[in-house]
Amino acid sequence: MRLAELEHLARPQAAPPVQPCKRRHDPALACNRCTEAHEPVATGCEGPLCRQTANDLVVYWPDRGVGQVRALCPPHRDAFTARNQGARIQVFPLADGTHTYFAHGDGTQIATCRHCGHAIYLYPALRGAREPWRDGEYDETGRCPVGEERQGIRVVHEPAVTLAERDWARAASTCTTTADLHPNEDCPARRS
Ligand SMILES: [Zn+2]
Ligand SMILES: [Zn+2]
Ligand SMILES: [Zn+2]
Ligand SMILES: [Zn+2]
């Protein structure tokens, strides 16, 4: 066997470095997950035929009934508020990592925790708080048990803000959250 062939067969000395997709592979390898790794987790605008990313959550309270919530891009937000002059409307910016929200109520945002891969909630009352993300309505501290176990320090639920962060966190959790996003509180793996 010639030397060139041996070199070809030689296994790399060290594991390849962690790539933007959070996996280890040859950096020269074309990787779809690397390509989208830095893409932010976002919510699409609900404006008619709009393909933009939403920046704001608009909560609209009709004269009777519960608030209706819409994620809108700046032009659609302006159009909506102009069209509903005089109505009770509240507009606030979407928090980083928000990928969905409750369509009714006063504007609860939903993200994926970058530590435990579970659904986490930002309730309107905690908007602007330093550690605002919660596991559910009865979670008072926002502490992330999985993150704490892994890191050995106090860790709170924090949103994954890029697609790579989100996918990595979901894949690392050993329950069914990858297919069916749920909060820790309702985790089937915890009930046994
Ligand atoms: Zn990759
Ligand atoms: Zn729009
Ligand atoms: Zn968590
Ligand atoms: Zn789970």
Sequence-ordered SSE layout with sheet pairings:
Elements: H1 3-9, H2 32-35, E1 56-61, E2 68-72, H3 74-83, E3 88-93, E4 100-101, E5 109-112, E6 119-122, E7 133-134, H4 145-151, H5 163-172, H6 188-191
Antiparallel strand pairs: 1-2, 1-3, 4-5, 5-6, 6-7
Overview in brief:
22% of the residues lie in helices and 15% in strands. The chain is an alpha+beta fold.
Helix share, percent: 10-25%
SSE arrangement, N to C: HHEEHEEEEEHHH
What is the beta-strand fraction? 15-25%
Please provide the count of β strands.
7
Strands ordered across the widest β-sheet: 4-5-6-7
Radius of gyration: 21 Å
Poorly predicted sequence stretches spanning 5 or more consecutive residues: none
Question: How many structural domains?
Answer: 2
Total count of helical runs of at least 4 residues:
6
Mean pLDDT: 89
Key attributes of the depicted protein:
single chain; 192 residues; four-stranded antiparallel beta sheet; 22% helix; binds zinc ion
Architecture overview:
The protein has a four-stranded antiparallel β-sheet with strand order 4-5-6-7. Strands 2-1-3 form a three-stranded antiparallel β-sheet. The protein folds into two domains: 39-94, no CATH class; 108-192, no CATH class. The relative contact order is 0.14. 22% of the residues lie in helices and 15% in strands. The protein has helices at residues 3-9, 32-35, 74-83, 145-151, 163-172, 188-191; strands at 56-61, 68-72, 88-93, 100-101, 109-112, 119-122, 133-134. The chain has 192 residues and is of the alpha+beta class. Bound molecules: zinc ion (4 copies). One zinc ion is lined by residues 113, 115-116, 118, 144, 146-147, 157. One zinc ion binds at residues 118, 173, 175, 177, 182, 187, 189.
